[in-house]
Amino acid sequence: MSEKLPSYGGQAVIEGVMMRGAQVCSVAVRAPDRSIVIDTQPLSAIYRSRLAKIPFLRGLLILWDALVLGVRALTFSANTQAEEGEKIEGGALTLTLLITFVIGIGFFFLLPAGIGHLTVRFLNWSAQQSNLLEGGVRLGLLIAYIWSIGFMPDIRRVYAYHGAEHKTINAFEAGAKLDPETINRYPREHPRCGTAFLLTVAILSVLLFSAFGPMPLITRLVSRLLLIPVVASLSYEYIRLTSKLTRFWWSRPLMAPNLWLQKLTTAEPENDMIEVAIAAFNAMRASDDKSQTEAV
User: What is the total count of domains within the chain?
Assistant: First the structure.
């Protein structure tokens, strides 16, 4: 029986890639002088705790920690590109993240709920019809947002680094040599992608909210906010399950929508982008192996 491969993950950042292992994560960024700057940090102990093994609860804990990890990686990449007096830190960073989070919740959860409520009040739609429309609007906004920002040059480069991250992990899991020419032959989609999580949240919210009956606008908005953790934990468990079923042909339809959406969130990377992904992956692997050896 072949040895089970670790489930490595990652994230694209500004001019770079973050790779997450079992013990550490490494961020590699192409600096303005064309050198590759690497930062390696230990992961939270939550990934190895008993809480991380409890279904549904583990999703919320790991997703929150992954969010913190992602913000840290993005901040490092942005500061690598910035001039000395332009670095992002402290209160300004916290305020920016808080505003972004509030806008995201309002745009993708509360706005569709408000639109759904209007159809009940002014068009006399049933609660089920209204809830289905709400889900459709939410899904449409997500896809439209991801597609539209892909036309921005800076975001297009982030999408290309996203493709480099996926190609590198796909090549590793296939046992291939990790060099740009070899890695470039592998697909830029991967079943454990965070994009899959976003799409799953949108789809599961349709199924969950469609079961609700009519309710006042305020109650409807509050219910959507309160159920975000529920939808998030269900989505995490669904992605975790489907990622284990990739070897079965019948699981492909389950993953097809997620893989399709990744065609919007990834782009074909240049070789120098893949070099950055390789640097992040190798740094993570080296530190991961060292940490596990020291723990024995």
Answer: 1
